[in-house]
Amino acid sequence: MRKPMMAGNWKMNNNWAESVVLAQQLSNRYDERWEDVEVVLCPPAIDIKAVYSVLEFDRREEVVKVGGQNCHWEASGAFTGEISIPMLQAVGATHCIIGHSERRGYFGETDMDVNKKVKALLAAHMTPIVCCGESLGVRDSGDYIEFITKQVSAAFAGLEPAEVKKCVVAYEPIWAIGTGRTATPEQAEEACGAIRASIAEEFGADTADAIRILYGGSMKPANVEGLIAMEDIDGGLIGGAALKADDFVKLVEACL
Which end of the chain, C or N, has fewer beta carbons within 10 A? Predict the structure, then answer.
């Protein structure tokens, strides 16, 4: 059985004080059953330490993890504005989102960049949450399965099956992020099933059975039950609903 995951991507929202309040609200709602779900909070990098401190003080940090929204593959150097993996680890991060559609679309992040980050995170014993997904144009062209699986294959290029098992894939149809549109459970399952099948073909059935695949396109309390019920969907990479404690708790509890 794959342990479900709910990862909250706070994006560029919440200052230090607001992040502390949200982290405290979530910590206050903690339930021992959450141990059956891998819960990850990914605030802006400047807020990671504050969020981790709340969880640590309340002794939640072993169950509720924190992660980065991006990283650089080099440990240090002349990379103005970037954040290294050792820096993330130093403030308590154990996970990191990479290859998000907004990083690819707004900042020109490539499949090669994603691959370097995957390898660097694994070398540091952190969990990469690797994003993939298609635009509306690609979906309408009918080539979306090929597009998605190529992104995943490129992200994992050069890895051994044991390394791939330690990663998480998040399928995020770009046309369903922040638009109010959501892929139907059947559409999401088709894509996630194709990702799992492509991993099985390249890295073996054991690897495909072990890796967790999240849905990352506007999952919220109103649609979580149908999405989580799908065989190949192991949780969610949550945007807007992660900024509201009540909504995020409902998503976590949907996995129980």
Answer: N
CA dihedral sign of residues 221, 126, 10, 29 = positive
* Cα–Cα distance for residue pair 218/230, rounded to 1 Å: 16
Phi-psi region of 178 (alpha: psi -120 to 50; beta: other; left: phi over 0): left
| Residue 171 bridge partners (DSSP) | 132, 215
pLDDT along the chain (256 residues), means of 10: 97 98 98 97 98 98 97 98 98 98 96 98 98 93 97 98 98 82 90 98 98 94 97 97 98 98
Residue 217: what pLDDT?
85
Annotated active-site positions, please?
100, 172
Q: Alpha-carbon dihedral of residues 143, 70, 124, 214, nearest 10 degrees? A: -50
Measured CA to CA, the distance from residue 88 to residue 66 in angstroms comes to 9
* Whether 256 contacts 5, CB under 8 Å: no
According to DSSP, residue 99 is labeled: S
Pairwise CA distance, residues 109 & 174, whole Å:
15
The residue type at 7:
A
